[in-house]
Amino acid sequence: MSRILKFRVSTMLLGVLFAAAFMLTTAFSPSAQAKPIKVGFSMALTGALAGGGKQALEAMKIWRDDINSKGGMIGRQVELVYYDDQTNPKNVPGIYAKLLDVDKVDFIVSGYGTNLIAPAMPVAIDRDVVFMGLFGMNNNKKWKYDKYFQILPAGPDPAVGFSYNWFEALKTFKPKTIALLSADAEFARNLKEGAVKNAKAMGLKIVYNENYPPKTADFTPIVRAVNAKKPDVFYIASYPNGSAGLVRALAEVGTEAKAVGGGMVGLQFSGLMAGLGPNLNGILNYDFYVPEPTMALYPGATELIAKYQNKVKTEGLKTDALGYYLVPWAYAYLDVLGQAVNAVGKIDHEAIAKYIHATEFTSVVGKIKFTELGEWSETRTIVVQYQNIKNNDLQQFARPGTRKIMYPLDIKTGTPQTYNSLR
Amino acid sequence: MEFLELLINALIAGILLGGFFAALSIGLSICFGLLDAVNIAHPTIIVGAAFCTFLLNDLLGIDPIVAGLILTPVFFLFGMGIYSLYYQFFERQSAEALRGLAFFFGLLFIAEVVMIMIFGVDHRLVSAPYIGESFTAVVTGMTFSVPYRLLAAFVIAGLMTLGISYYLSSSYFGRATSAVHQDMMALSLMGADPVMIKRIAFALGLATCGLAGALMIIVIPIEPAVGRFFIGNVFAIVVLGGLGSIPGTLVGALILGIAESLVSTFFGPSWAPAVSFGILLGVLAFKPTGLFGTGDTR
């Protein structure tokens, strides 16, 4: 055999070897071995609830990076596929249909809040897939869908459970009458319905019970109308714009009600906390996580929030700078899904739903157990009172003392004081 | 006595709220009422001015109203630019009706996206000594309170109405603007440049956004999409007052403000929008040109 022929044969052999090696390595590499698992969702990235939606999204990205660094779900990397629902429920069904039909996602989870979960429910039920919800209030009451689970810690009857602790906290004032006001939207109305039940159970006389249109610009006439009824306490279920408007109207007009607040969404957002500053003093409101020393019942939450705050700072993200309100919960609802999928070991929605129903999970928001309707088995809403707020500096809200916990008693860091005594 | 106190307070609140609505609507009254430009982006441009006010207040500590005054000439120039685009691509080609509307829709979305990119989606507020405080007076045992932030909105809206009305009725450009509204061809035959007059009038309409934005962030928290809340209100006020009538816009705004306040106080806030728009429909049924509108004379 000539040297040239030898060279040609050996070159060909080498080529064949390289090709075989390439095929083997690509065939058994993790990326080729399995496509990424896609988790799809809509999120309020613009519109009235974007302040919450943006921080939820960043928390979800942190979870994605965490789980991928640990090998992903059932050995496959996780990819998030999401679209902006503009805080508009009308956009939601189309987004979920696209996620399932065009993007071919493996799992769907909800956007932020009751009003944006509700329109996605029929799509999830129609496709018979597991559907994790983020801060949903009674979304499954009508459907009784066995694959729906949500992460609002408001107990088995969330409408009642959400405000239960608020009513427990204000027992110290021995109230006899109550005024109730809510935004004219599904979540807020549900919240107020639950508050009415709690008020009746406590024997309170309802002297005012109204809804306000979400586009209301001036709340002073409403506050005056409430004051005219002379309620001992004033329960408010509002959205961010209304919450800010009411806080200011209360500061300007004043009130003799001993406790004011309850279900005011938005007062937990950095922008509104800093903007409203001392006007917040005295408001008694719900929350889920505050930087008080007794919040150690959520192991890992402090580290997660620190990671989020660092991410916002280093990446220059234009989103909530503190992230106390939603970050642990947005992380947890994906964490529960991830734990369940890994435990079942395959993408089998029936088996995953059964596993979630049967299991008590541990995540950054502590222990989680779901009821038959996918609600939390226990209420863990906390009641905080805004105190000692001296100016509009955001950093004061990152330290203990400005949002003291009034209830539950085992983690309380303060005693409720009347609204006017803190003004 | 208690009822009377509630009634007077509701009237005061309604008048002040009407002032705020007027401040948001006066610029649109010029653009839509006098120039037929369906500027649906008007409330969003006001939000843009509100964000600029926020920046000036937050970074430099400038009072929001002073910031609004500083922004007014800036928005005048912005208005000149926008009208030049609008004229070049739509009005000159007689395509201002539907395509012009699409232009302003596009402007609305672009403005929102730009604000999201620059400021993010969080709610923003400003601080000033008069925000969250009110003037309180006790008269014959009745307590009346006037929130300073709404009083500021009312006073500024009143001054803007007076100033613009005076300008339109007394100055050459003002009278020419009214003439453009009535007969553009006749105006050009008299040697005036109708395009330049419309450009200045449109810019004046957008200049009001500077102060209106300052008032908006004084009264409510803002986020990039909050302008959409007010699209219905501002158009309703301009139509109610009568197209082209600046004092009519103020009166229309006061009527809606008082109606909203009285209904909220005595019948429940959920009825307020229905009553306000019921008034609009009622007025249009009996006077299709609006309260002070003289009808289209072209």
Name its key features.
heterodimer; A: 423 residues; alpha/beta; Rossmann fold; seven-stranded mixed beta sheet; 14 helices; 40% helix; B: 298 residues; mainly alpha; 72% helix
* Topology, number of strands of chain A: 14
Radius of gyration of chain B: 19 Å
CATH superfamily of the largest domain in chain A: Response regulator
The best one-word shape of chain B is globular
Per DSSP, the total helix count of chain B is: 11
Task: Explain how this protein is built.
Chain A is of the alpha/beta class. Chain A folds into two domains: 34-153 and 299-368, Response regulator (Rossmann fold), CATH 3.40.50; 158-287 and 387-422, Response regulator (Rossmann fold), CATH 3.40.50. Chain A has 14 helices and 14 strands. Chain A has helices at residues 3-28, 30-33, 50-69, 92-101, 114-117, 121-127, 158-169, 186-201, 220-228, 240-253, 270-276, 301-314, 327-344, 349-358, and strands at residues 37-43, 78-84, 107-112, 131-134, 148-150, 177-183, 205-212, 233-238, 259-264, 284-287, 361-363, 366-368, 382-386, 403-407. A seven-stranded mixed β-sheet of chain A has the order 7-6-8-9-10-13-14. The mean pLDDT of chain A is 92. Chain B is 72% helix and 4% strand. Chain B is globular, with a radius of gyration of 19 Å. In chain B, strands 1-2 form a two-stranded antiparallel ribbon. Chain B starts with a helix and ends in a 12-residue tail after the last helix. Chain B has one domain (2-286): Orthogonal Bundle (ABC transporter involved in vitamin B12 uptake, BtuC), CATH 1.10.3470. Chains A and B meet through helix 3, strand 7, helix 9, helix 10 and helix 11 of A and helix 1, helix 4 and helix 10 of B.
